Amino acid sequence: MINFQYIRTTTSKAAVDSLGKDKTAKFIAGGTNLVDLMKRGVTAPEKLIDINNVPLKQIELKGNILHIGALATNAAVAEHAVVKQRFPLLSQALNAGASAQLRNMATVGGNMMQRTRCGYFYDITMPCNKREPGTGCGAKEGYNRMHAIFGTSEACIAVHPSDMCIALAALDAQVVIMNPKGERKISFVDFHRLPGATPEKDNNLQANEMIIRVEIPLNTLAENSYYLKVRDRASYAFALVSVAAGLELKSNRIIKVRLAMGGVAHKPWRLTEAEAFLTGKDATEVNFKLASEIALKGSKSFGQNNFKLKLAPNSIIEALNQAKSKA
Amino acid sequence: MKNSLLKDDTDRVDGIDKVTGKAKYFAEYQLPGITYGVLVPSTITKGTITGIDSKAAERAPGVLAVVSHLNRPEVKGYEASNTKPVPNGTLKIFYTDKIAFNGQPVAMVVADTYERAVYAAALVKVSYNKEIHATDFDENISKAKPPRNPSSAFYVRGEAEAYKNSAVTIEQEYILPTETHNPMELHGMLAHWDTENRVTVYAKTQGVKATQNTISSTFMIPMENVQVNSEFVGGGFGMALRTWPVEIAVVMAAKKVKRPVKLVITRDQMFTLVGHRPHAWQKIGLGADQDGVLKGITHHAIGQTSSYEDFTENIVNMTKFMYKSPNVNTSYKILPLDVGTPIWMRGPGEATGAFALESAMDEMAHALKMDPIAFRLKNYAETDPEKNRPFSSKYVDEAYKLGADKLGWSKRKNEPRQNKEGQWLVGYGMSTGVFSAGRGKATVRGVWYADGRLLLQSASSDIGPGTGTGMVQVAHGVLGVPVNKITFELGDSSLPPAPSQGGSATMSTVGSAVHDACTALKNNLAELAANSGMSVTDPIAEILKKNNLPSIEVTKESSPGNDQSKYSMYSFSIHFVEVKVHELTGVVKVSKIVSVGDSGKIVSPKTARSQMVGGAVGGIGMALTEESVIDHRYGKFINNNFADYHVPVNADVPDIDVIFINKPDPYTNPMGAKGMGEIALIGFSAAVANAVFNATGKRIRTLPITPDKILS
Ligand SMILES: Cc1cc2nc3c(=O)[nH]c(=O)nc-3n(C[C@H](O)[C@H](O)[C@H](O)COP(=O)(O)OP(=O)(O)OC[C@H]3O[C@@H](n4cnc5c(N)ncnc54)[C@H](O)[C@@H]3O)c2cc1C
Predict the structure, then answer these.
(1) Which of B194, B230, B239, B531 is disulfide-compatible with B491, CB 3.0–4.6 A?
(2) B678 in catalytic set
(3) What value of ipTM does the predicted structure carry?
(4) What does the alpha-carbon distance between residue B177 and residue B626 come to, in Å, rounded to a whole number?
């Protein structure tokens, strides 16, 4: 039997401390991703640190900033009154993910840390540089319909599967991280990484660190925001492409805009150039279309995912249309 | 048959057991000393095993055996001649070093707990000599060959390829990818040898007698020494219509370790070990004159099979009789590939064929600028043009009208892209489905007790349609005994014989035997009453008391009469759908469904409706979401799990209107019923594809219709 140690911690400090001593230790939160990966033989931690009793479930507005604890469940965040009212984009994105049962278990920290759904990553008989560096990328010339069109590398074309993270990237969130020395804060868009030559690293969290919470500043986008998720079936499917769009409009003038895409890259893909283009312009179909073309610059497809080169810009337009018509 | 047969409020007799967990499925049985099997699957797709190093596994805690071709116990049927008694072509498990498909079991680890077996299975090291495999249908299509049975290979009425000479012609190819049945319940078996020569199994099967027969012939022990139990089955859709090699492996392993062995295969193994709907290529040619009269229909099909077995199904059959064209020709070939053998999946080949034929009919209607229903009515076959004889009953024309009215067909414009709601293009489509209304032979034992209870027994199965519920209603119709006093026992091989549950024939076959057994009981009671100077209307308690009997009992075998050769017996379905297609994202939503069943008398309205609803849901899957993808470089399925293989979820399914013609067929059976399980799905995918065309002007001939295909 593959034995592993299982311990429970009640404070984040204890959790981080027990990490430090053991290189193969892993936190377990909802377990909805980690347990699958263990069953499939993708990962075999020698120690599981159950963090569910660590008091990090808070969802509260502190001044101008919403604090969401790393252990708040996806369901709790999605249904929270403040989130629904002030950050509907996040609520929509969460509810577009997984299934009700999974959202009840899944946590904010676990959602950020979930691994790609690439079939080659999951099947330990297949090559995958992310799972086993140096074995090659099965997807590049294989089944890559779900795969990335931005920021890919020779080594990896996988996408980050989260919906929640797309909204958080659009909402200028920050991630608060704890390590043995204390806390540090990084911007959400810098949390996840592009694959480069080290696709085994999904993000910039270090081995001795723990996600404590996410902070989102209040914004002016609530009235005109929309999370579009295009998928193969209406629920319980990962995104082919998703778009988080938020607009602040004055008459029809775009004062502020936030755009991020999912299903297209190894990390939540923030569309800063398209945002810059749209800012100060009128919210028209023509401008949306021009923005979508700007957003697609540098994209590259791999055969079965060629359709994303059309679906991605179309989805940007649709998400902007929907966000605009919310008012 | 009297109308008393229709009792709309009869619930499933086992509904409460199912939702409360009281119903027991094979994997839930425990036996003293039980052990657990876990398979070691081949990681190559074709070649030979050069070595199995099982030392570490054998030393692992709790391990009782690592069964493989190197050490399997004697299986007498495997050693006997090639054709008998084990059917020709069946993969003899753990028999040789040959690997015929990726995932083929190389060994089975048996241990005292499931977890220990899982761990030990990971320790088994297998080495191979790899050969070049062929799993890609398109690349190998030139290797297609006619099936061994030539009668299914070619058909000509009038002149072959005559469509080409018509004023208006359509010639198109249609592709269906491999689909996997994927019932919720995983496959497997629990087996225990009670003695050297007698085995009991708990199975997931659509036919307890068929399983009994296969085990009996494979191990060459008498039928009565094989006890098969399968009272509840968590869905089959056809995949449990045969006893798979893995089941034989369980019986074999139980023999080896001399303890009960339970195997429950994993979801990814559901893709490789228990069949699938085969990938199929089809080409249809239609020729019509300007008025829309069909002059020629040609239908060629190639379906995939395994390298070691000819699997065939009826892909082209509907084309032979559905429309009254004077010239029809069909051909059917199979293409052996290095995959496991396919098996019928709900609506089997007919559903594959109907997708092509009914799509082509829609294409032709469009080319003729005719309404698709008007075009079908123009070519309506009043009698069977293939066999030149009457249909036993056919109300398809009436069904077209009922369905069209219910859906609001009048909103449909013949030109595509005419209906729009915001960014959603709205379209309407319809299609026809047909399946043979077969009836076989079955035996039912009936015991009518003095207290009024009625017990009926037959070795039938219930994979979900509600067999017991239907049978109870047939009995109620004959005897008037309240349904809550009737018990129907099935799923036990020691009961009187009944065929497997497949091909939509259970109601017709077993229902007839129930009907005949109940009629015999009624006559017996009448006789007893008369003999003792009483009347049949007297309570049964008194009649039996007078005769000193605790109960009366009959065992009745029931077979179809010769009407089967005088009439063509088919069930029909007409599917209507409304779809919405998003112009920018290519997402297709089925927004309305009306399915009309022309399947004779409806014996059990609730469960009949459920059949149609389930068929429509399966039809949405076939049309929009389901596809088993192989990475041909490895010959291995890549989306072999429930997250990536998309069966429709609730959010994909709108309200489904079900309409039944509900007119008894005079010839099929005493109830006037016809089967329903298959027609519920057959043709559905074409209705969706036709509606997508009506919405978008885009004809999609390769299923499933995913957003990428709409956008391309
Ligand atoms: C069938 C299926 C469908 C799904 N569909 C979707 C979908 O459509 N959209 C979507 O967005 N998601 C989807 N998901 C993924 C789901 O959102 C994730 O599994 C879930 O969010 C993971 O959270 P968890 O708490 O269960 O994490 P766990 O499984 O407990 O942990 C996952 C990883 O996060 C690490 N971790 C957890 N908490 C912390 C922390 N505080 N600090 C540092 N590391 C931590 C763990 O060590 C582990 O490595 C799906 C999942 C499944 C199984």
Answers:
(1) B230
(2) yes
(3) 0.97
(4) 8
Q: What atom in ligand 1 is closest to the CA of residue A239?
A: 8
Model-wide pTM > 0.90: yes
Instruction: State whether B515 and B583 are in the same domain.
Output: no
Select which of B185, B313, B578, B678 is catalytic: B678
Residue-wise pLDDT for A278-297, tens only, equals 999 999 999 999 999 999 99
Residues B376 and B357 sit within 8 Å (Cβ to Cβ): no
The larger pLDDT score, comparing residue B81 to residue B277, is at: B277
- Percent of all residues in chain B with a pLDDT value above 90, rounded to a whole number: 94
Q: Is A111 in the pocket of ligand 1 (CB under 6 A)?
A: yes
Average confidence (pLDDT) over A1-21: 91
Write the CA distances from A62 to A11, A90, A189, A216, integer angstroms: 22, 18, 22, 10
Separation of alpha carbons B213 and A206, rounded Å: 61
Cα dihedral sign for A54, A60, A62, A64?
positive
Angle between helices B245-257 and B208-219 (to 10 degrees): 60
Digit-coded pLDDT (tens) for B459-516: 999 999 999 999 999 999 999 999 999 999 999 999 999 999 999 999 999 999 999 9
Task: Please tell me the CATH code under which domain A222-325 is placed.
Answer: 3.30.390.50
A294 φ/ψ angles, rounded to the nearest 5 degrees? -60, -40
DSSP state of B159: S
Chain B positions in Cβ-Cβ contact with residue A262 (cut-off 8 Å) = none
Secondary structure (3-state) at B436: strand
> Is A211's C-beta closer than 6 angstroms to any atom of ligand 1?
yes
Helices (H), ranges, B301-418: 317-321, 348-367, 372-378, 396-407
pLDDT at A2: 82
Domain that holds residue B374: 280-438+565-711
Q: Does residue B153 surpass a pLDDT of 90?
A: no
C-alpha A83/C-alpha A70 separation (Å) is: 15
Query: Max CA-CA distance within chain B?
Result: 82
Contact B649 A235 (CB under 8 A): yes
According to the model, what pLDDT value does residue B82 have?
58
Ligand 1 atom 51: residue of nearest CA: A98
pLDDT in tens, A92-132: 999 999 999 999 999 999 999 999 999 999 999 999 999 99
